[in-house]
Amino acid sequence: MSQVTALTIALDRAPSRNRTFATATAVVLGSLLIWASALVQVPVPGTPVPMTLQTFAVLMLGLTLGPRAGAGAAALYFLESMAAPGVFMASGRFALTGGYILGFVPAAFIAGVLFQKGWGRGWLRALPAMIAAKAVVLLCGAAWMAISLMSFADAVKVALAPFLGIEVFKIVLAVALMKSTSALSKRFEGSTD
Fold first, then answer.
1. Full 3-state SS string of 113-151
2. Which of 17, 96, 117, 148 is least surrounded, with the fewest CB atoms within 10 Å of its CB?
């Protein structure tokens, strides 16, 4: 059984001529949400990369906007980061965090697809779905940093290991909010205006 996203519900209620504009607006606002979530930065021991709420925002965009629009917001944010890294990135250094940001695109898509396929209907199904999406971000970050450090083992120590505990907390929070999103979607899907 599939689930609908908040954007799907909004687009279904919008006149067809406004759907493209509504989707484009959601993508732009989503990219700005990812940027805003980079403003919350917490230093993490053992790595020059700070902890932000970006991966959390990316997963929630995949869940609420769906796979295409969620990935579109992440892709737009990636392009914004390349154009103005000092403005759009947590560390301001694309060489350090570019891999994580590139990983946002498939992570949002994966989260959105799995949510639409019904993986948000229970904790036991939602946890592996969120772990898969988060793993993509962390692995992309480590691979990108391995190029800078010339060693994948060093990159794992700096780009992946320090974030594992933090990401578990964000996954649990995302799953809890996913359940709320699922309940909200059911409520709006069943209402008739």
1. HHHHHHHCCCHHHHHHHHHHHHHHHHHHHHHHHHHHHCC
2. 17
Residues 23 and 29: their CA atoms lie apart, in Å, by 10
Q: Note the pTM of the prediction, 2 decimals.
A: 0.83
Answer positive or negative: Cα dihedral of 26, 30, 33, 35: negative
Give the amino acid at 101: I
193 residues of the chain, pLDDT tens digit each? 456 666 777 777 777 778 888 889 999 999 999 999 988 888 988 888 888 999 989 988 998 888 999 999 999 999 988 888 766 665 557 777 889 999 999 999 999 998 888 876 677 777 788 889 999 999 999 999 898 877 888 888 888 889 888 888 888 887 777 666 555 555 545 544 4
Tell the burial category of 158 from Cβ atoms under 10 Å away from its Cβ (0-12, 13-18, 19+): buried
Taking each helix axis from N to C end, the angle separating 164-190 and 54-65, rounded to the nearest 10 degrees, works out to 20
For the chain, domains (ranges, CATH) are 6-41+48-186 (1.10.1760.20)
